[in-house]
Amino acid sequence: MCYKNMKQITLPVRVMKMLGIKHLLISNAAGNMNLKWKKGELMLIEDHINLQPDNPLRGENFEILGPRFPDMSQPYAEKLNKKLVSIAKAKKIKLNKGVYAGVMGGLIGLISGNCCITKPLSGSFIIGLIICSSCDKSGMITINRLIPTLRLM
User: Fold this and answer.
1) Coil, strand or helix: which one is 100?
2) Which of 9, 57, 96, 147 could form a disulfide with 43 if both were Cys (CB 3.0 to 4.6 A apart)?
3) Distance between CA 131 and CA 140 in Å, rounded?
């Protein structure tokens, strides 16, 4: 799906808030950048780095959705994460833990093939180096869905 603006990305989360949803499990298909992991392995996001130019908190604010700027100190629910780790262990599913990089679509091809340094895009070489040095997976929309979800709490 091609997203034209932040409203399209955050609309499902806002609708869920209005329906009374209290918890949300976000999943995605992300590019692998950790050379120690095999493609297709699962990762539990422990932290993220947002390298996208836009933010879902910009624009018109609706108080009914919660505080304008939610607490970002612990964006990933520790209790839920522990439960996911426990389930994966019980089912003998390999579950890596790592850091997710939120990037623009133009960077996905650069970093998702486990070789970001040799495939720089115009103007993106330095960003690619930063991502490769600290993040395990990359994608476009997860962080922009997570941030408004924090307003649900």
Assistant:
1) strand
2) 96
3) 13
139 lies in some domain: yes
Residue 147's domain comprises 6-152
Answer for the pair 52, 103: CB distance below 8 angstroms, yes or no: yes
Output the domain CATH number for residue 102: 3.40.50.1580
Q: Could you report the per-residue pLDDT of 30-81, keeping only the tens digit for each?
A: 888 888 888 889 999 999 988 787 888 887 888 887 788 888 888 888 899 9
Containing 101, the helix (H) or strand (E) segment is strand 95-102
* Domain assignment present for 86: yes
pLDDT for the residue 129: 58
Q: How many domains does the chain have?
A: 1
Provide the pLDDT for residue 83.
Answer: 94
* Structure tokens belonging to residue 134: 């600290």
Query: Beta strand 42-50 with 31-32: parallel, antiparallel or unpaired?
Result: unpaired
Predicted confidence band of residue 118 (pLDDT cuts 50, 70, 90): very low
Task: Kindly state whether residue 1 falls inside one of the protein's structural domains.
Answer: no
The residues that bridge with 44 in the sheet, in sequence order, are: 97
Beta bridge partners of 127: none
Position 114 scores a pLDDT of 44
pTM: 0.78
Residue 121 inside a domain? The answer is yes
